[in-house]
Write a structure and sequence with these properties.
The protein has 336 residues and is mainly α. The chain contains 18 helices and no strands. The N and C termini lie far apart (61 Å).
């Protein structure tokens, strides 16, 4: 009953209630001799904390999942809790969380471990969810073709099983990445599809951020702002909150009369929020946007200082799109 209470509230984005239920589950699990109950308590907490924008805490619980999971003992829990394997779940969540916290290569290794286990289990829904996280990760790393390939595999597997909840947002968002020039109607149709979907709240919010950014890239500021602010206010501070602020700033710059001061404020707020939450990859993106704005205003020293510190923090992933873009910008700004 308590696990069901957690699951319902997690999917609806009632994070405070979900977290409370997860913590009660953890208390029960720790007072039990059943490692399966303890595993499922951590299984409740790693996605909840992740969706709340608390990646470093979520990683602790996902790593506990890796440590506790024994395939022969716990694979059967797939049929009791959420319909997917908890040992794979902690690994694909770790892939996402490692990327968010600034370890793009570590994220790939966790994803590979998740796929290794799906190959052993051959459980369709578990594989479909893993493919969703794989598409998400490759999209964030800037690996367009790999993201599209994972989407294609997901849809091919999900369709015959009727897994619409994991198929629709991928089909809507990533179909746009195949098109060289997007128009307003294509983007609006995608946004309407997302609005009718029943995926978890954090996934809906992040997909809407993605659509809003595509509007910004195509120069449709007003439409992008409508999509971005269609995200309920309570969800704007959860998973991907720094991205909400950064994309708001990018849209402000695309207005017919660019709002430079407001955009700078958004970028600064995004940098500060991401830094406070340990979301280094989001912090890098926001700092890059800020540095570009400052450089365009002739404030080159400020631009360099805004970006150099966070870029220097990274120790891996230098072949990914965000780090390459940051390096190019720093080279353009010179050493000062």
């Amino acid at each position: 009953m308590l696990w069901g209470l957690w699951f319902m509230n997690y999917n609806r984005g009632n994070n405070a209630v979900a977290l409370q239920a997860g913590e009660r589950l953890l208390e029960i699990g720790r007072n039990s001799d059943d490692t399966g109950l303890l595993l499922e308590a951590h299984h409740a907490l790693w996605p909840t904390l992740s969706s709340m924008g608390r990646p470093l805490q979520a990683i602790v619980h996902a790593e506990q999942g890796v440590a506790l999971y024994v395939r022969e003992r716990h694979a059967a829990y797939t049929n009791l809790y959420a319909g997917h394997d908890p040992g794979v779940c902690c690994r694909y969540h770790l892939a996402m969380l490692h990327w968010v916290s600034g370890y793009p290569d570590r994220a790939l290794r966790s994803l590979q471990e998740a796929f290794r286990l799906t190959e052993e289990l051959k459980h369709p829904l578990t594989t479909v969810i893993t493919l969703w996280f794989a598409a998400w990760l490759h999209h964030q790393r800037g690996e367009r073709e790999l993201a599209i390939a994972q989407c294609d595999s997901l849809i091919d597997l999900a369709k015959p099983h009727g897994f619409a909840r994991w198929m629709d947002d991928v089909d809507a968002v990533h179909s746009l990445t195949r098109i060289a020039r997007l128009d307003r109607d294509m983007l609006a149709a995608c946004q309407q599809r997302l609005a009718s979907m029943s995926s978890a709240t954090w996934r809906q919010a992040f997909c809407r951020c993605t659509i809003a950014e595509l509007f910004a890239q195509q120069g449709y500021a007003a439409e992008g702002e409508r999509v971005l602010f269609s995200i309920p206010e309570r969800d704007r501070g959860a998973f991907g909150a720094p991205e909400f602020l950064r994309i708001e700033g990018e849209l402000l710059l695309k207005r017919e009369q660019p709002a430079l001061d407001d955009a700078e404020r958004c970028f600064n707020d995004a940098v500060a929020l991401a830094g406070s939450r340990g979301e280094k990859s989001f912090e890098l993106r926001a700092a890059t946007s800020l540095a570009r704005l400052l450089a365009s205003a002739g404030r080159r020293d400020e631009a360099r200082n805004a970006l150099a510190g966070i870029y220097g923090w990274f120790t891996e992933g230098f072949d990914t799109a965000d780090l390459r873009s940051a390096r190019v910008l720093l080279d353009e700004l010179g050493s000062g």
